[in-house]
User: What shape does this take?
Amino acid sequence: MHTALALMLLCPLAGAVFQAGWGSAVGRRASALAAALAVAGSFAAALVAFAGCGVAPTHVSFGAWLAFDGFSAQFSLLYDRIAAVMTVTVTFTALLIHLYSAGYMREDKSYARYFCYLNLFVFFMLVIALADDLVFLFLGWEGVGFCSFALIGFWHEDPKNVVAGCKAFITTRVGDLGYVAALALTIASFGEASLTGLSAGAETLSPGLAAVIGFGFLFAALGKSAQLPLSSWLPDAMAGPTPVSALIHAATMVTAGVYLLMRLDPLLAYAPPVGATAALLGGATALYGACCALGQRDVKRILAYSTVSQVGYMFLAAGSADVTGALFHLQTHAFFKSLLFMCAGIMIQAASEEHDIFRMGAPLRRRYPGLFVLFSCGAAALAGIPFTSGYFSKGRTLADALTHPDPVFLLAFAMGTLAALVTAVYVFRMYFVAFFAEPADPAPIHDAPALHAMELPLWPLALLAVGYGFANPPEFLHIRPWLDHYLLGVTAPLPPHAAHAELLVESLDAALAFLGLAMAWHFYRPARHPAAPPDGLLTAGLGLDALYLKRLAAPYVRLAAFAWRAIDEDILDGAALGLASGLGGLSGAVGRVGGGRIAVSLAAVFAAVAVVLVWVAFGWL
Assistant: This one.
């Protein structure tokens, strides 16, 4: 087990080192192969560890790496069944994205740098999934933040991409202030910083302190997972290459916040307000993201807002103390969303780098029938068509909210239910417009063998998007829910009343999916020749960016301008210039005294003698 866990981490790290040192020298194909093999090795190690994982967790320590004042941070790992499922999901999805990237980046000159960042991203995400020590986990937490900045701004020749990367980096750093504060309180309370210690000692904390620590970690999770009010960075993160969008928005960075809440579930049990807040924000974000997706034309921005929305459902489940439900939706989302993003990459390249779905249409479906089938599988799962993976996992999260005794969760349920309807509308709007419409101004669609080859790694994801829901179906189907039973003993079992509520919720979810399909068909069916709508409030993310620019960024800019002009230039620079001018005048006077003229020298001597005599006289008096 120790060897498998070490290899799981070392393989992508070694791949990143290889790409940094020799990736450009070995050639494009060898570089892509080495990057994929590194993640394949990590995936193989994850499968070996998964096969040997029992109910009891495994603790592994590779020694201390930071020590001060009696505190030490350890390279310590906590491997249990939650980590087992997470690591297999991350490495499997990342492997397919690496294989897809070999085709997508086939003409990019910086392929070695790209694969270096991609391997390093996987390494840091696995650190988050495996770390027991919270300082070590923070290393992975910040590592994925750095890699996301580097990958979002990968094409840095365009300043807009750099700005998008900086926006993601700064926004997530704002959330990380909560992590640092919660970490400091944890160390002060327990003298250590480990998930194991925090879980074991949570009952000894006062309710107030448990809530403060919980809210600190929750704020960090909101930033990393792009939840309200820190969600505005994710749509702009589409500036990076499409495989990066698939990696960041599927099973890695945006799910890190949800995964942290899963790990902190024992603490949240003693801080109910934290769970209620997480659920309420999750429901609100699910509705917000779905509404904003409805106003987009860029296929990647539609999927970005969709990610914001779907992660909201994960927060809803985690806030309801259903770790299995949150992990289940995390997995299904990883499969269908990474599938949709990579389909979008093929669509964009086939349409001559056009992102607007209103310029694609039926020619795309005719030339790429395989792509159409793949996209159909992902769209069905995202919309919650009955018996797809998204249908089962989304219904599980809504049932959690419906049956929770706290009335706040009913509001979260109402927002999540409405979001499910809007989700079906925007998904089938995208589906009908991008694959069936006859656009008035079509983008040129070209048929390329390389694009057809890029479809190959997507078929496993399509199968999982459609069929993985049966790994954990609701009890009314009388099929053994594998994930529930696998995590039994690690997480709390689903309450019986929640299990019965799933039948009602799944029926409602199915009705909403078909209602959304009918609404999308009514407004966007091919016979209507739908035209691209003008930009509006939904396109602008309901004005969230504008609000931040006006209320936060603008005052900061004014303060910075005041500090620059009034303080730095007028006061500090003015004082320095005045002092320099005075010293210059004094030196000039001294220079004139020593200029070689006898009369001036004698006058200076007499003046000095007079000053000395006056000083002596005053001293004598």
Observations:
- Strands lie at 58-68, 71-79.
